[in-house]
Amino acid sequence: MKSRVAAVFLTVASSASTTLAFQSPMNNNHVKYYAPKAVSPYASVRVLAFVTYSSCRRYSSLYLSATDNEVFTPTHLLSAEKRNEIETLVRQRSEARWNGNYKLADELRDVIDQICVTISLNRLQSAIDLENDLEYKVVTTDLPRSQGGGSTWELQPVNNPLFNNAKSEDNVLQLAHAALGMVVSSSERGVDVNEEDLDALVSRIEARLQTLQQRKAMSTFFPGTAAAGELHGRKAADAAFWLSLAGVNARDNFIYDELAKVASEELLRFGSNKSCRAKDVLHIVERFAMAGITGPSVNNLYNIAADCLEVKMMNNATDSINDSDDGSIDYNIIIKSLRDDDSFGLHSDRSLLGLWRFSTRQRKQRVFFENAAKHFDGRYGKETTTLHSTSDDKADKYEWSKLFKDSSRPLVVDVGCGMGVSLLGLATAASDASNDEEIQIDWNECNFIGVDLSRLGIRFARGVSQRWGLDNLKFVVDPAEECIERLSSYPGPIKLAMIQFPTPYRYTEDRDDVEASVAQGYNAQLPEDSESGCFMVTENLLHLIQGVLSRHQDGRLVIQSNCEDVAVRMKNIAETRAGFKAVKFTNSVTSLDAVTQRAQRWVANGGDRAIGESFSSLPLLPMIGRTETEVACSLDGKPVHRCLFVPRD
Predict the structure, then answer these.
(1) 3-state class (DSSP) for residue 611
(2) Which one of 125, 285, 296, 514 is most buried, counting C-beta atoms within 10 A?
């Protein structure tokens, strides 16, 4: 009988020699195979090896035909009609994404996800002797515009007859999407999510990951049985980020640890391939960092990513790679950061920039959230009870003795905290963290509270805070003025209040300009104007803040904005109508370029400039206390307008 060649996957330790002996699982013949050395010293690697043997057998989802060395994949067995149906749907989805019609693209993705291809084993009797038919799903991979756009597709097994598995409807990524959809759905209704229902979804995710974990040992020879098919590419990273957005505080961090391990295996599988771009590696680690996930599993992921990036730098013989979105990226700096366990994380520049992009791409984000909510309501909503509010009682929110272990500590409050990034940083800042000389605060001795109307943003912040064990940091959903009124009962001093980058009102010269901009979809999500009451920073809010700060000595108010007209307006109200006095800075702003269209219009209309002793040219807070907007402005070369106030005597 002639010899055949089959492709198999094997686990090889990094210290293994290039040529190893292997005993075939299909028979007792010892054979030789040749495999590259492992990419990373941090884990063993599943590598593709070509094994020569003398019987026609099946390995994984690859089949040998009667012709020597010819390999069949499941797609070869599709009918022309079924192949055409799939290719038409994938092409239509690619065109929708290219044209920015993300809603249609998501609908087509749902149609593609429902396709199930059954291949009868009667057609494969010469290669395999198993009882059950094979079922496959269609998996699409989107190509970036720099590579021409479009999408590719492949068939991946739903069942594995070798293990006689029953088909399961649970899928980690879909369950994570449904969990986020549950939170979005409840947020849109103005109520808190039913935690019991959310826990039920989380339990299903845990059970699914445990099943995948149990199969991992067998994935050496049958990769279709492990998580790679279900969480291939960056899907594990997406699932982690979505669960973090939903505020999931997973028990013992099992879910987040397992997802980090799966992502590590995926990088080991494809991270050093030429088809995997440096940006693809970054996207995976950035999503874990954006999710605020920490611990040994994610640190191991970062080290593996650093290995992959080093390989790509050697292949490109350069320290930087130009990216269509980010320009030139110095990967040496990123690699060094990834290798430092305390350097790469939620508050690194790349992660904060990612959060800023996610929160500011309004149309794409809105479609994403709408589909998440629709996914939950349509597929999982019937399995759960009615959503209801569980924590709207005002008195319970501000029982200081229950909120903080020591409510006599100085309090730092972030008004309109968004996703809580600044407070999450300050609550972990070292006592000697550098900041402006006018703000003398021992951050380790403070309590922190953030308030915002966004239930989704607050859930994210709470989830990260709980996973980090920050018992001196709390977040509440409330109108800003109601929260400040409650601060009057806080036992300790209010040391610092912060208003950072409030959502600006639309900048328009007249009513016709307002209506025209809304009709065209520009800034439709912004408050209509500065006087309508929809803009958060009102005269009354600043009066209330002045009142709580003046109860004790040394209270300060920080105001920051990336819109010059908004910063000037808030400063003027604070000084002329709310009882504040602006602090004068040595390092003040002496000149300012109008780099944005909004600033150019403001200057052209004779608006006051954010220049002079009242505007600081340097950050007022420690680096770790920066918001995602501040980092985005810094990286883009756009100014941030900063003021510091004290109550008037």
Answers:
(1) coil
(2) 285
Query: How many C-beta neighbours within 10 Å does residue 36 have?
Result: 12
Write down the pTM of the prediction: 0.74
Q: d(Cα 60, Cα 375) in Å, to the nearest integer? A: 32
Q: What is the pLDDT of residue 298?
A: 96
Cα gap 493→266, rounded to integer Å: 50
Determine the 3-state secondary structure of 589 from DSSP. Answer: strand
pLDDT for res 331:
86
Number of alpha helices (DSSP H) and beta strands (DSSP E) in the chain: 21, 20
Region of residue 547 (left: phi > 0; alpha: psi -120 to 50; beta: else): alpha
Structure confidence by residue, pLDDT tens digits, 302-330: 999 999 999 888 877 555 555 545 556 88
Give me the DSSP letters along 142-155: EPPGGGT--EEEEE
- The enclosing H or E element of 593 equals none
Q: What is the pLDDT of residue 531?
A: 62
Give the whole-angstrom CA distance, residue 79 versus residue 453.
53
**CB-based burial, 474-494: b 16+ in 10 Å, e otherwise:** bbbbbebbebbbbbeebebbb
* Contact yes or no for 589/616 (Cβ under 8 A): yes
Place of tokens 């000037």: 568
CB 205 within 8 A of CB 401: no
**Angle (CA) 420 440 352, round 5°:** 25
**C-alpha distance from residue 171 to each of 168, 239, 437 (Å):** 8, 11, 52
Residues in the chain, pLDDT under 50: 1-72, 124-130, 162, 164-167, 218-228, 324, 382-392, 510-511, 514, 516-522
- List of E strands, 417-570: 447-452, 473-477, 494-500, 556-561
Q: How far apart are CA 259 and CA 263, in angstroms?
A: 6
